[in-house]
Amino acid sequence: MSEAPVLAAVRNRVGHLTLNRPSGLNALSLPMVRLLHRQLQAWADDPQILAVVLRGSGEKAFCAGGDIRWLYESYKQADGQHEVFFVEEYALDQYIHAYPKPVLALMDGFVLGGGMGLAQGAALRVVSERVKMGMPEVGIGYFPDVGGSYFLSRMPGALGIYLGVTGVHIRSADALHGGLADCHLPVEQFAELDRCLDEMHWNVHPAEALRTLLATLGENRLPASELAALQPAIDMHFCLPDIAAIRASLQAERRPEYRDWAEKTLELLEGRSPLAVCLTLELLRRGRGLSLSDCFALELHLDRQWFASGDIMEGVRALLVDRDKAPRWNPPRLADVTPERVQTFFAGFRPSAGKTRRQA
């Protein structure tokens, strides 16, 4: 069992799921997605199971995303498995959002891409001080998916736009400030959390019992949130209507407390896939007015075009396969991306009738 890609155990009426590919930063494969979904469904139907804890093995990552190298090879081989992966991964993520029993996502280390898709649907999102969280897809010529068009677009102010189009990683305090986590638990308390779970009497509703336990174990001794300090500038620049206006605004930033950040942000934008950056902005703007299910449907609509018409194959080639770190983006510059090119990817998508808005 120690070699299985997902470990499952039950202790004291709690189902424990562990992503078990530590050497690969617990990146998700199609078999892992299927194992997770199958086990969650079994526990949903089992009255003896009251709650689920989801974590990653090792000290480096909860989950660093999907197995993007495998997706690249699948597309090159034309076996269709990359499309199957997205369909099943999104179905799993959406299932977690609606899971009938409380899911506690216990996050340590990297929580990126597909890891965010698993965690953001959990009822209780717990982060350690070692968390490095983000949706870095634009760096490999892709866009934030796994429900990112839903949870990023509902962050305070323009924080989600900023995270999505730059692909920056954030720390625990920032995750709490931005509403991407509910509780901080020092990593040395993880074992104590397990011990307490193993001894719980479940005299109250499981969700209430878990919240009380976390409040008892958690602590607030975290560094100040960098996002909180930057939010006035982020809101000012990233609320603008297009990437050209955002860049111009960042270039004009003269306030001493924001100038270095603005320069670094411009450098980040210049290094990302221009097409992915512009499409991400449009995706997140649309996501604000869509239900969760429609956000997943829209991301799937984009997936079905992106491997052939987007930048992901070139990004993976340059950064993960050939490793020349010199992707030839198409087009090569942000200024060359036209609104018409971006809109072609959204053509034909129709939200579900009567479900254009869901309360966050």
From TrEMBL:
Q: What Gene3D superfamilies would the database entry show?
A: 2-enoyl-CoA Hydratase, Chain A, domain 1
Pfam families given for it? ECH_2 (PF16113)
A GO BP entry is: L-valine catabolic process
List the transmembrane segments. Answer: none
Ranges where the Enoyl-CoA hydratase/isomerase domain occurs: 14-346
User: What's a Gene Ontology MF term here?
Assistant: 3-hydroxyisobutyryl-CoA hydrolase activity
Keyword Hydrolase in the entry? The reply is: yes
Assigned EC number: 3.1.2.4
Asked if the Swiss-Prot or TrEMBL record annotates the protein with the keyword Hydrolase, the reply is yes
SUPFAM superfamilies noted in UniProt: ClpP/crotonase (SSF52096)
Q: NCBIfam families of this UniProt entry?
A: PRK05617.1 (NF004127)
Task: Write the protein's name.
Answer: 3-hydroxyisobutyryl-CoA hydrolase
Please tell me the species this chain comes from. Answer: Azotobacter chroococcum
